[in-house]
UniProtKB/TrEMBL annotation:
This is D-inositol 3-phosphate glycosyltransferase. One of its GO terms (molecular function) is hexosyltransferase activity. The keyword Cytoplasm does not apply. GO terms for biological process: carbohydrate derivative biosynthetic process. InterPro entries: Glyco_trans_1, Glyco_trans_4-like_N, Glycosyltransferase_grp1. Transmembrane segments: none annotated. The lineage of its organism: Bacteria, Bacillati, Actinomycetota, Actinomycetes, Micrococcales. Residues 55-224 form the Glycosyltransferase subfamily 4-like N-terminal domain. Residues 1-20 are annotated as: Disordered. The keyword Methyltransferase does not apply. Coiled coil: none annotated. Keywords: Glycosyltransferase, Transferase. Pfam families: Glyco_transf_4, Glycos_transf_1.
Amino acid sequence: MPLRRSEDASGGAECEARGVRSFTSLPRPRRVPRPRPAQRPLRVLLTTDWWEPVVNGVVASVQTLRRALVALGCEVRVLTLAQGIRPQQEEGVYRIGSVSAAMVYDRARIGMPASRRVLRDVLDWRPDVVHSQCEFSTYVWARRIARTLSIPLVHTYHTIYEDYTHYYSPSRTVGRKVVASFSRHVLAPADAVIVPTQKVSRLLEEYRVRRPVRVIPTGLDLERFRPARTPAERDDVRSLRASLGIAAGQRVLLSVSRLAKEKNLDEVLELIAASDREDTVLVLVGDGPHRGPLEQRARALGISDRVRFTGVVEPAEIQRWYRIGDVFVGASLSETQGLTFIEAMACGLPLLCRRDPSLADVVVEGRTGWQFESAAQFAACLDALLDDPALHAGMVRAALAHAGATCGATEFGRGVLEVYRQAQGGRPPRLLPRLAVPA
């Protein structure tokens, strides 16, 4: 759907307000009919503010999508932010210079004006679709590139921002109104919006977002996320447990998460303390600004000897840490899809998490795990899992089967590819600009 003039003007103003040079400084392109290349693979530009070395759900989702689209025959490149002010380029990845925004959100960055070389390379490559994954710095470029090339703009809405109001607003009610207005404005230019769960789809409906919305759960590489199979992998599990000082008879309750307030890990500590099982160790995989308060809370609850903090884990190594667990636990209500819960399930871990609509398709009650609503329910479910080996083994099998049937990366890629095709089909015949980008 072409942008209205008013949207174009506001986009340019927003671009300048964010400290990003507007594309209006470039010569106006002359549009000419595009010859359709024969048998050329679909070219997809993925844009994201988050990328390696950061570890979070957005990065994991975009990496999985990139691999899935390539496996389906697409050419894929990524436009993201560098970890410094100098733009960089590597195989298939453009990095725009950026500055730290850690005062607003840990490890966040704000993009600086993109170099003309990066811009020229992207436009010369001529993607067929731009698929944005974040709503801030790189979204400005996604929107402008799509408009300049007259190609579809697809956007994945990953984050429930109203769960992060404590970062920017003392009032959750005011924060929700701000988020609703922001979401309507940001998503207005998109030809299609992808969300990972029905929970997020309903939320955008409540925000009065009027763009086409498609629910597509994020897939996983099931060859990577799986239980230990080989003797070497089983030895690795024992080695990791030993490195954390976990005895052979202890059971590992695992959580993989950024250590931030919105992840509600304080409640997990309280639940572990209340369950009073000396045979358990809670392993918190990840790091973040809330680590200090969590360590203090564990000491105050008298369970610091049964809690382990791993710190930052390399993204390529994360599956190793899932394999040391016996049960995956969590109390976050800020999830859009519960990607770590899906990864844990694919690695054969039963799930024990606070009830949340985003997990309705992941936690099959009594089969792949349970959703609890109170400390008493948590303790009862944990006792059942740890004291009944047959029940635990059955849940492990059910978790693996459910992951295999619903969480494959190939189906994820095919679903997204279909959205691209629908977005292309819903646009007027393409006219390709003859671009002149100064050196």
